[in-house]
């Protein structure tokens, strides 16, 4: 397997460009097994969240893997019910206890609900205390980021958002790039809908690759960190095999042109959870 490239965050921390997502993997055996398999296959970036109810299993898999802790990039996220300074600090400690970690590589605000600037102040404290190597946000539109900037002393290092061929949000991509915020994709395969798109099938045939590999490679070409999720070991392996080929610039543009502004998840400006 080719070496997984890394991006360097604004504070110098290295982040692998592909990770293993764990959303909806809540069964203890399945969660431990799938994370261990991912690590054995070569993934070194694991993404979880308090909401996912599997932090303890992720932590167990990391410990059982035998891989040095410093070689694994771990992300977790604070849920919406924990906004506020003291509650955010408590939520962080709860996640760390479940993960069994002293330091997490990236800690994110999961959704702006509504944006509580005291929450970000807690995140800044966690970062200054060395408990998170990097801090960031998830599902933030440009206006959420601009609002945060009015009081933030430290800018978010990452914005993890829905990103796939039907939802590119080029203006948000450009805004994050301008402010040194790394763009990261959740649901890069549109919950499986990419497999039905004819232009992607044609590109898969052209390159002799799977549709998933074409889309994930497009993420990489766009400079976007991506975290596909599967519990199928063969697909885990296949999703990693995207670093030994490149898409033509015209094909990158073709995929980007499929953008419809269409979501498979909630709109950060209109959600009720």
UniProtKB/TrEMBL annotation:
Keywords: NADP, Oxidoreductase. The keyword Transferase does not apply. One of its GO terms (molecular function) is oxidoreductase activity, acting on the CH-OH group of donors, NAD or NADP as acceptor. The keyword Oxidoreductase applies. Substrate binds at residue 110. The active site is at 52 (proton donor). Residues 18-259 form the NADP-dependent oxidoreductase domain. Pfam families: Aldo_ket_red. The record marks 77 as: Lowers pKa of active site Tyr. Belongs to the aldo/keto reductase family. This is Diketogulonate reductase-like aldo/keto reductase.
